[in-house]
Amino acid sequence: xxxxxxxxxxxxxxxxxxxxxxxxxxxxxxxxxxxxxxxxxxxxxxxxxxxxxxxxxxxxxxxxxxxxxxxxxxxxxxxxxxxxxxxxxxxxxxxxxxxxxxxxxxxxxxxxxxxxxxxxxxxxxxxxxxxxxxxxxxxxxxxxxxxxxxxxxxxxxxxxxxxxxxxxxxxxxxxxxxxxxxxxxxxxxxxxxxxxxxxxxxxxxxxxxxxxxxxxxxxxxxxxxxxxxxxxxxxxxxxxxxxxxxxxxxxxxxxxxxxxxxxxxxxxxxxxxxxxxxxxxxxxxxxxxxxxxxxxxxxxxxxxxxxxxxxxxxxxxxxxxxxxxxxxxxxxxxxxxxxxxxxxxxxxxxxxxxxxxxxxxxxxxxxxxxxxxxxxxxxxxxxxxxxxxxxxxxxxx
Length: 397
Ligand SMILES: Nc1ncnc2c1ncn2[C@@H]1O[C@H](COP(=O)(O)OP(=O)(O)O)[C@@H](O)[C@H]1O
Ligand SMILES: [Mg+2]
What we know:
Blueprint: E1 20-29, E2 32-42, E3 47-51, H1 58-66, E4 73-78, E5 81-82, E6 93-96, H2 108-118, H3 125-134, H4 150-162, E7 168-172, H5 180-197, E8 200-205, H6 208-214, E9 217-222, E10 225-230, H7 232-237, H8 242-247, E11 252-261, E12 266-271, E13 274-279, E14 292-297, E15 303-306, E16 318-329, E17 333-340, E18 344-351, E19 364-369, E20 375-378
Parallel strand pairs: 3-8, 3-9, 6-7, 7-8
Antiparallel strand pairs: 1-2, 1-4, 4-5, 9-10, 11-12, 11-14, 12-13, 14-20, 15-19, 16-17, 16-19, 17-18
């Protein structure tokens, strides 16, 4: 792989100019709060995703970083500099939008060269060639935008934004117009480009899989607030709210009452007569004896056996009884829906290795899992938060 480093001559490796720090940044439109005052730090050189359903305030947050929107409160810092009062063109930031807005009458080469020419730079050849190499469009330099596919046009838009050597690249649903397969390819492509140039990317998306595939750190936004921020794996394995548990993938959430809790050990709870266990360290709130708690577990962490085989389940596993109401074979796995007395709907994803022919709709079954794979959530929240919004724009989970 060739390595193009468009920022080497201006940017020392120790430069922190690409770190983004938002302090108490918020935005109101009249009485409506689009973004509640939030603090956010994006480390220099990281691939950061803002993830949330349509209308939760992602674009507004991005536009405040770019200087396209004046915050109602708070400040924006790039590196050590407070840029809150600077106009967009004075900020070392560039934005790529869903609509690539290439100049239709200019060829690819001139589209990419545009930013340099506007700054009065005469010898653009080397930089444009490097940029076209970076996005792997060297052979397309003399084509017009309409002669390229959507994914290729979006790569031109990225090249055009990067040639000005921004310290931060903001991307607002840049892959939204592409079909699913192309979007997957472009996710990997953008990730490669970011790794190669090493500048900070802040990527906005409503697609949870996209955020998890691409970003080092994901901030999950809901109704103008950041609900949780972390590495994709941590968000998925230990969600701290029902919204995150439901919006990122699928979770079974079982309401229970705590019987017994030790701070370092296990929490025992009862849910309609079913005894369950979750490690205290995996609870988002300190569990109190007699208090309510939601026990969460991901469907792929759970195994399923016909009730007549219950004796084969090893000691120490959580068990939930139920009846299969639906099963869908989707190739790599079979997705079962149970009706369980303790919590109503309960989902189990079983890898298709050796399928048990008895696991069909109507069968009485026991679902079981290692307690270490569960997580505990505050029972005061809406148990269905984030359910309806996940994938609501036609995404495949
Ligand atoms: N200029 C504006 N005037 C009034 N309301 C706005 C304006 N821009 C955005 N909003 C509202 O602010 C909320 C957040 O919008 P936005 O940041 O675009 O969300 P997202 O990008 O997450 O879909 C939405 O409810 C939207 O309708
Ligand atoms: Mg938006």
